[in-house]
């Protein structure tokens, strides 16, 4: 049977980070969120111990701030010390949030089995099991908060360079793992590097940090990967969060599986309430949808931004002062493990276009104008582009035919909704 190597790839712990954009919380939810990030690190350690992995890699941004507190250091180093006690080495590098030059060196010393890769040069370590060289670890961290655009963070980090640096015993190791905090090609500002060059460097797996979303270069043979952050901090970091469990075997592609570590998951949920005829029905449907979303979240506690959509007779009711906030409070009272931070009304009033056309009043004229504009998609796109430019709003990409029709439809619904406000008094 061929030899194997198993390790956990974690990144972007951001211990000490605040949770952003939240409304006033209950005492219980405030406590949950304060403990969520350090608690996620505890679960990383527990996953390593329970699975008896060979080692743990942490690819930068361990702390959220260069001024991390003593308590933050204590929580992180408690985890490293537990790994050390279990005989599990750890290999670390710093990121742009916690550059090595600004670490609080007087707070703690690394345990004997923990290796901090250098930040001023390529650095290498050799992992041995039972006295036999098993893996070369190569990488480097951030020396300062800003990486020079004239320097490639991956330059000189190759398997050949590792053997030269570590000596002939390193050549006996069947595996090699790279560790970097890099924007790769996703972020051109934060130490970008060429994935093709990484693939040519002779490493079996590159454990990367910085991008908070889990990503692998090839699902069938993942050799470059971001594990994502271990705990989402706001609604931009939705879905399950965790670490990669990596298994390397001789003459076989790496195997990568996901281990969830977040105690609180964030979700953005759009709910069509067009079939709801009263507020209790709306609340009931919303709760059903939240439970359905939570079923795929690998986490019991959930913070959500809920967007109500659809043409509904409740549109006017939802627009009354205080109603949305009352509905949000009702949702938050319904189940203690879910918290609705924001409830957004994007519903529209039901509109009988045929009746409006038959009336022959201004709404009918407006609908005919929309029909004419919709017939000529190129004119539609030209018009929208001119409107964007006139308002100095940047276009992130060329408008597609589908997007142009969508914008026109949304605008038409909005105008009709405004025209018809007031019911029979219009």
Automatic annotation (TrEMBL):
One MF term in the entry's GO annotations: hydrolase activity
Pfam family name, one: Metallophos
InterPro entries on file: Calcineurin-like_PHP, DNA_Repair-Maintenance_Comp, Metallo-depent_PP-like, Mre11_N
Entry keyword annotation includes Coiled coil: no
Domain of life per record: Bacteria
Keywords tagged on the record: Hydrolase
Domain Calcineurin-like phosphoesterase: 6-213
UniProt xrefs under CDD domains: MPP_Mre11_N
Protein name in the entry: Metallophosphoesterase
């Amino acid at each position: 049977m061929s030899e194997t190597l198993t390790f956990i790839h974690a990144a972007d712990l951001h211990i000490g980070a605040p949770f952003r954009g939240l409304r006033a919380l209950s005492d219980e939810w405030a406590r949950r969120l304060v403990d969520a990030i350090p608690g996620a690190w505890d679960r990383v350690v527990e996953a390593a111990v329970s699975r008896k992995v060979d080692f743990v890699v942490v690819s930068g941004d361990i702390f959220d701030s260069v001024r991390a507190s003593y308590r933050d250091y204590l929580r992180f180093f408690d985890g490293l010390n537990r790994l050390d006690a279990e005989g599990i080495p750890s290999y670390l590098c710093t990121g742009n949030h916690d550059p090595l030059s600004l670490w609080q060196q007087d707070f703690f010393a690394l345990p004997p089995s923990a290796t901090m890769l250098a930040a001023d040069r390529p650095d290498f370590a050799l992992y041995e099991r039972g006295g036999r060289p098993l893996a070369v670890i190569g990488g480097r961290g951030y020396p300062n908060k800003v990486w020079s655009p004239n320097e490639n963070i991956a330059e000189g980090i190759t398997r050949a360079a590792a053997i030269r640096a570590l000596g002939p015993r390193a050549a006996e190791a069947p595996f090699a793992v790279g560790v970097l905090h890099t924007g790769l090609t996703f972020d051109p500002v934060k130490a970008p590097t060429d994935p093709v060059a990484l693939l040519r460097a002779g490493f079996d797996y590159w454990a990367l940090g910085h991008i908070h979303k889990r990503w692998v270069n090839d699902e069938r043979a993942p050799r470059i990967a971001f594990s994502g952050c271990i705990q989402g901090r706001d609604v931009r970091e939705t879905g399950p969060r965790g670490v990669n469990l990596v298994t390397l075997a001789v003459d076989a592609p790496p195997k990568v599986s996901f281990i969830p570590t977040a105690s609180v998951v964030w979700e953005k949920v759009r709910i069509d309430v067009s079939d709801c005829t009263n507020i209790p029905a709306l609340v009931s449907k919303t709760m059903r949808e939240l439970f359905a979303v939570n079923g795929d979240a690998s986490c019991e506690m959930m913070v959500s931004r809920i967007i109500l959509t659809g043409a509904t007779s409740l549109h006017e009711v939802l627009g009354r002062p205080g109603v949305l906030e009352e509905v949000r409070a009702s949702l938050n009272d319904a189940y203690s493990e879910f918290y609705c931070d924001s409830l957004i009304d994007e519903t529209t009033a039901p509109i009988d276009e045929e009746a409006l056309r038959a009336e022959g009043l201004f709404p009918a004229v407006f609908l005919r104008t929309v029909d004419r504009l919709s017939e000529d998609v190129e004119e539609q796109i030209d018009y929208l582009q001119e409107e964007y430019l006139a308002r100095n709003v940047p276009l992130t990409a060329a408008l597609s035919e589908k997007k142009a029709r969508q914008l026109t439809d949304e605008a038409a619904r909005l105008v009709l909704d405004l025209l018809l406000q007031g019911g029979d008094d219009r």
